[in-house]
């Protein structure tokens, strides 16, 4: 059983920010095909801001909820694109899911993860199949919950989540966008991976690495 404390969550944001910087150009290129080519920049800006904001906190005197709310606020302030409020809501819901806890055990982390996915879905009102980041987040959250319920530890659960996210992002190639900017393209969005689903895979994989390695 892993115990995740506030300092570890702060390092998680640093890991995600590094992954986003490395992935920025690919994400902008994907968004260039069916959107406005800014998704990599938005994600890099958002996670860099979140990383800096949580690094400035005194981890020993801050609970996970406060850290996640700080990340949410800084992400929202840094990002003008639609991914801003979506990820800000994810972290705010994650914060609420672990309220009152000073450290997180395996099932707390899975609850946090599931709350993030639900937050994105509630905020964006996208259903699976509409070619958005929800096509990666929803199956990932479900897979994490199922893995944990079947007796897997956090590493196994987040590995299942990462795999499901990857398959979900891949599946967006065969979808027609009906939410967000790409919906203007209609059938012309077919054949291309949704950038938000692609970045979700990177976020989830970075979370897995940061919380289980
Ligand atoms: P913008 O479209 O404002 O430029 P980004 O480029 O940062 O924002 O993000 C685009 C991504 O946001 C899309 O690829 C999609 O995954 C996601 N997205 C857009 N609208 C929604 C929504 N309503 N629900 C969930 N995800 C959405
Ligand atoms: Mg965009």
UniProtKB/TrEMBL annotation:
UniProt-listed SMART domains: Dak2
Highest rank taxon of the organism: Bacteria
Domain DhaL: 7-209
PROSITE patterns found in the cross-reference section: DHAL
Pfam families for this protein: Dak2
InterPro entries cross-referenced by the UniProt entry: DhaK_L_YcgS, DhaL_dom, DhaL_dom_sf, Dihydroxyacetone_Kinase
Enzyme Commission numbers on file: 2.7.1.121
Record key words, sorted: Kinase, Transferase
UniProt GO molecular function: phosphoenolpyruvate-glycerone phosphotransferase activity
Protein name: Dihydroxyacetone kinase subunit DhaL
Organism: Mesorhizobium cantuariense
Designated gene of the protein: dhaL
């Amino acid at each position: 059983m892993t115990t995740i404390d506030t300092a570890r969550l702060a390092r998680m944001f640093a890991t995600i920010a590094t992954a986003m910087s490395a992935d920025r150009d690919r994400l902008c290129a994907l968004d260039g095909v069916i959107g406005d080519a800014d998704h990599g920049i938005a994600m890099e800006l958002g996670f860099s801001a979140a990383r800096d904001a949580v690094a400035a906190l005194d981890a020993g005197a801050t609970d996970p909820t406060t850290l996640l709310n700080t990340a949410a606020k800084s992400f929202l302030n840094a990002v003008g694109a639609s991914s801003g409020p979506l990820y800000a809501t994810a972290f705010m819901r994650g914060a609420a899911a672990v309220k009152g806890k000073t450290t997180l055990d395996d099932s707390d982390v899975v609850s946090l993860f599931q709350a993030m996915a639900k937050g994105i879905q509630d905020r964006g009102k996208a259903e699976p199949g509409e070619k958005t980041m929800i096509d990666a987040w929803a199956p990932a959250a479900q897979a994490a919950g199922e893995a944990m319920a079947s007796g897997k530890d956090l590493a196994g659960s987040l590995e299942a989540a990462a795999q499901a996210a990857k398959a979900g992002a891949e599946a967006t190639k065969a979808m027609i966008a009906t939410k967000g900017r790409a919906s203007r393209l209609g059938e012309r969005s077919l054949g291309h991976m949704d950038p938000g689903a692609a970045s979700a895979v990177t976020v989830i994989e970075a979370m897995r690495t940061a919380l289980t390695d």
